[in-house]
């Protein structure tokens, strides 16, 4: 029995254990750590939604905060102008996120790699600008304060308000994460990994790669907006900072730290980044620097993320023992420069 | 007269002002094994990519089993039974052998909204994958990431994935490239065992492979068809000899012959 | 239209700074598809070091050299230490250079505090002069001159020398260049270092104009990204043209709708990318 199937065996038990811990957390934790935990849940959803693009489909988006902010503003505007109840408002937030993705998708998906990165960033900045300047509706840089925190009716009076919103977040995020798990383990999810690995090869197997990317982009947008909507309720406020590209960059770092393309990696990365921010800042002002050092160390030592740390250790130990379980790959087929040039022209077109 | 498996009508391809293919017309009958040969830079790989839809033809038409596919994107051409292998095996390096096969088998089941159940719970697909792995002698390496496999295995994974999609017209782009000289006879045997109702178009540098496998040979030179005929005719053709064959045969197969 | 000589001078002097910051980024980007989000940090370093040196020695010229050299050192450290192993891994590049940016921002805040610092131009270039009937600051005019001079220099280096031909060939097709037996790694290292040098010089030169403060790095970083995508990755001419376009749009919009100037530039970038994903002067990617 190999390591993978052993961990697969334990997976249900581990998830159950985690769930129990999360359920009893409000009875154990004081208010402040509980609100940090709430934030971790929300950003885990954000990072996991981004991971659909970064990790699975291999699309390096630096503009995912656009969806987060869209969800936040959807919730904020609905609460301010219409007093929409939370479940409906969150649903509309998701729809708004998907809509934004469907509108911008045809443009950004024309590009690849670094270009994709910068185009998603540009569009996010434009959205940021619209929100910033359209003061009459969005409140400009003052944002929209006073968003009432929704509460679970069946828990009213039984637990504190913080715990009540925590449970609400846990339910929404839990359901969302379960559906993400389902998406990435479906044939669609496997196809996305194929796109990341080599889009052209996948197309050669008869997959409509563009459509797949478009759907992935829309899904990521929807989940990202859901996280943003929850965050707006959590803070009771939505402002341009929730669209800022710095947030997108932080999301990207969360995903990479934990392990892009792994299911639980983004959760680990989120916990790490947020704990660094809140805990380290409590005893040193230099937490920004420490965060920067963590980023760099991750890239250098664990480019595949913390989640893959056990694998990495196993690899290193195997190397030390000079185990070579399989023959080394032979040298790639001979290519003349002209053939390669033609191949690359094809890749580009 | 049966509908030809592949027809090219006056196909040209211009990339960045450079004419790579010029007015190519050829017809391949169902079940035929056609080799396309020519010196480096003759446009063989480009031609396969135009047929497979990875490159749009600048002019001309491509018909597969009588259907005009000129305007179809590559993934839609798989629907008419057209599949292609790559010079570098077209496999997903960070996926396991099994996942590579699964991706092929799952084509069409990904239904754009991602709704299709979990891959690992799909017993039918898992059984099929197991079958394919066994058939191609890949069971031992089924859970190894393909990047760890030697070149020959990667080629096998590539072919297995394509055969899982039941090709009717198979384009092989230098399948023998990267094989060691002593692997070539076995490889030729494998090619000969391909089902007879499958049409094969082969681009290959190894003349041993070409002449022991092809029913007809098309010679490309500077992006145009120089000659077209049976292996014997091609061998006799003086133009071909002058342009290419003699030198290539001396250079490439002297050691192996 | 409030476009007069004064706003033109302000715009073009800003363009000079943008060019200095973005040309290295652009060429490195074109050469290696490398996304360097620490470009703004190099500007910041140049600015702060320049400020300190000018403060302690009173010599502006020395400040420029020190600022440029400081950025060069940090640039070489980044290049030597990290960049080679991250070829074509955009995600890791972003993560790493963002990490560097965080560290630089925090260290500089530690040393120089959070207040904006401004440098006075050297005596020779203080005050204003009359140009085509408008009164304009002399230092701004000088900046335009320096920027133009350096632009010509860089352009000549890349477009007219043999070494520049290697770089341009590398932008077109890196593997091809390696086939020709050119040491692409060394070319890349030199380009990266020169880019860092220009960034630092820009930072020192810009201190009398933009000032330097935590946040200057982010602002310049974003502007440089816009210039690079607008101009087309790897194109020096593109970087020159885009610097001017961006700076002028920014300046003009600023005169009648100050708040919107920053976003107008982004809207422009998004629009150009949607119409021409390869940028104004870039080649198809």
Describe this structure as you would to a colleague:
The complex is a heterotrimer of chains A (349), B (257) and C (285). With 349 residues, chain A is mostly helical. Chain B is α/β, with parallel strands linked by helices and 257 residues long. Chain B has 2 domains: 172 residues, 3-Layer(aba) Sandwich (Rossmann fold); 75 residues, no CATH class. Chain B is built from 10 helices and 10 strands. Chain B has a 6-stranded mixed β-sheet with strand order 6-7-8-3-9-10, with helices on both faces. Chain B has a 4-stranded antiparallel β-sheet with strand order 2-1-4-5, covered by helices on one side. In chain B, strand 1 and strand 2 form a beta hairpin. In chain B, helix 3 crosses helix 5, helix 3 packs parallel to helix 6 and helix 7 runs parallel beside helix 8. Chain B is globular, with a radius of gyration of 19 Å. The C terminus of chain B is likely disordered. Chain C has a two-stranded antiparallel sheet with strand order 1-2. Chain C has one domain: ABC transporter involved in vitamin B12 uptake, BtuC (Orthogonal Bundle), CATH 1.10.3470. In chain C, helix 2 packs across helix 8 and helix 10 packs across helix 11. The radius of gyration of chain C is 18 Å and the shape is globular. The chains are: A mainly alpha (349), B alpha/beta (257), C mainly alpha (285). Chains in contact: A-B, A-C. At the A-B interface, helix 8, helix 9 and helix 14 of A face helix 1, helix 2, helix 3, helix 4 and helix 6 of B.
Protein topology:
The complex is a heterotrimer of chains A (349), B (257) and C (285).
Chain A: H1 3-28, H2 31-57, H3 65-82, H4 86-108, H5 113-133, H6 135-138, E1 144-145, H7 161-184, H8 187-204, H9 209-235, E2 237-238, H10 245-258, H11 265-283, H12 287-301, H13 309-320, H14 337-348
Helix pairs in contact in A: 2-7, 2-8, 2-9, 2-10, 2-11, 3-4, 3-9, 4-9, 7-9, 8-9, 10-11, 11-12
Chain B: E1 6-15, E2 18-28, E3 33-37, H1 44-52, E4 59-64, E5 67-68, H2 74-77, E6 82-84, H3 97-105, H4 111-114, H5 123-135, H6 151-163, E7 169-173, H7 184-192, E8 199-203, H8 207-213, E9 216-221, E10 224-229, H9 231-236, H10 238-253
Parallel strand pairs in B: 3-8, 3-9, 6-7, 7-8
Antiparallel strand pairs in B: 1-2, 1-4, 4-5, 9-10
Chain C: H1 5-32, H2 39-57, H3 60-81, H4 90-112, E1 128-131, E2 134-137, H5 138-160, H6 162-172, H7 174-179, H8 184-210, H9 216-231, H10 236-256, H11 261-275
Membrane topology (chain A): Multi-pass membrane protein
Protein name (chain A): Branched-chain amino acid ABC transporter permease
Pfam families (chain A): BPD_transp_2
